[in-house]
Amino acid sequence: MDLPSPFQQFSLEDRVAVVTGASSGLGQRFARTLAGAGARVVLAARRSERIDVLAAELPDAIAVATDVRDDESLQRLTDRAVAAYGKIDVLVNNAGITNDAPALEETPDGIRAVIETNLIGPFLLSQMVARQMIENGGGSIVNICSINSVVASVVGPEASYCASKGGLLQLGRELAVQWADKGIRVNAIGPGYFETEMTADLFAIAAGEAKLKRRTPMRRPGRIEELDGALLFLASPASSYVTGQFLLVDGGWTAV
After folding, report:
1. Choosing from 85, 161, 193, 241, which is the catalytic residue?
2. What would the pLDDT profile of 79-90 be if each residue is shown by its tens digit?
3. Catalytic annotation present for 161
């Protein structure tokens, strides 16, 4: 009796994946995970020296210095990926920033920076990449949203961040519907609290980490490798009939 191979559908062999914000934290882990599944990875970030080092560690990867707030930079990223590999199969919109300030104290420039980085940049890059995907029969876009896409921040004031991530979630749903018949799937991951550069200040304070543990039903923050499965599922053929969905990886945070 021949048994199906359930792991084969998670393979990314012969696929090309673009990851923004790949210089540290979740983005760096995502790049390693996709490469481990067989993908050729295009690393995008502003800190070019970091992605250059990472590209040298991964098989058949390239690094492209990219500012997601700059339209020309996004087009250059898309063009470099296609020039190097002939196509783009997977896009992970991971780059993101936040303002740790009360809403009344956020500056216009600060608000715009967060919205442009977390929402407008991913929208424009998705447009550019989608045009390439359509020419090649489709692909998968994975937006890295947040628990704050659907709930308010209780560990610190983050109005512009919450607004941008909520917008990114809804953008993905709309693009999923518009592009479903073109072979492009658009989904999102909503991480809870993981220790990265962005959350370093929170974890550096014992009271901050203790608050996270009390608030999370699983009584601990996430481990970065616990996002691997969600990413591979949404990026790979394993989720070939899944689009417009939001997969929360939050230890039960949003279930309360």
Report:
1. 161
2. 999 999 999 999
3. yes
